[in-house]
Every structure is written in C-alpha cells, then in structure tokens.
Amino acid sequence: HAAVMWRARTSAAFTGYDKPTGDAVYYRYCASACAAEGNWQSVALTVPRPINVQIGATPDGHPRLLVTSFGTGIAGASRMYTYAACDADCLRPESWALVPVGNSAERTFSGLFEFKIPEHSFVVDAEGRPHFLYVDANYIAEPDHYGTFHLTCEADCTDPENWTETNLAVRIPARYTTELGDQPALATAPGGKLRVLSEVYAIDKDGNQ
After folding, report:
1. pTM for this one?
2. How far apart are CA 202 and CA 171, in angstroms?
C-alpha cells in the first residue's frame, strides 16, 4: 500500500493478490472526510503479476505510479518496472498511460522481503519529474547490467525513449567488480536535489568486495 496527499485530498495505490485480482493495481481517491469508506472511489489498472506499487503526485496533484512486477525472464528480466501517469478523470482506466521503463534480474536475496518491506525508491520532484532507484546484477543481459541505477525523465514520460539511466555504483570493470546497494530509499530536497539512503556492499581500497 502507498498513499499521498495533495490539498487535503488523498490518493492511494495497492496491488491485487492472487486470482481474480492477481493482474491488477488499484488506484483509490478521496476528496474529503476520508475516514469514511464510502468517500473513496477506485479504479483497477491491468498490470500482469504486480508485486508492489509506489505513488507520487505532480505539484498540481496528478498521480504517478511506479509498479514492480514479475518479469518475462527473457534476457534475465525477472522484475519489470512500469510507470503509470494520469492527468484527468483518473477513476477511468482509459485515462491512464502505463509504460515499461526498466527491468532487473532476480538477485540471490532480492525476493526475501519485497512483499513485506515498503519501498521508498520512487519520488516525483517539485517540477513533476519522476525519479526511481533500483538495483540490478544481470549477467545474462549484454552487456552485463550491474549496479544501483537512477531512472528519470524530463518530459513526455509515457514515452520510454525519454527515460535516462545513470549507474550510481562504484565500478572496477577490469576486475568485474561493482558495488551493489540494497533497499535504496530516495527523497527530494530543496533546489531540485535528490538524496539517497541505501545499504551498500562496498568495495575496499584494494578493490575487493
């Protein structure tokens, strides 16, 4: 579950679980008196096999979602990351645009807590730009895709071609060594800056991990 408030209005998002809701992500909205269940409205969005969902909002209150789901397994992609955006009539499924923006391999311990620990790796900044962090160690993809990656988009973010990716990890390519993070948390700061908190399997001064 995840929730965000804007001008006393509340939006929330959560995934379905097993059939018949196993391929659904739900967006819920309440304009006022949100302690009353009857004041909430919801819409179901189709996302195959979702695991979790994070929610943010643009400065003018438009909802943005980042959904983690099980992947296809093609080229090691066991996790898929889907960005969802809506700018009007967000209780209608056709008002939402959903676009895959990344994928990752399943690491040794990556699936232990993803159903239990809330994710804090997705934010929308004061300019309405989405930002997302994820960790990958995919040796099946070519080239290898190892590190802690920052995904973002400046504009027209429902076009996957407009997303860019930066590896934040320290890497020593000659030794095939890369620092890996775990459970990275992302936050915005004044002036458009970003802040990251993560456990890191660090490289020492001799290049060993």
Report:
1. 0.89
2. 10
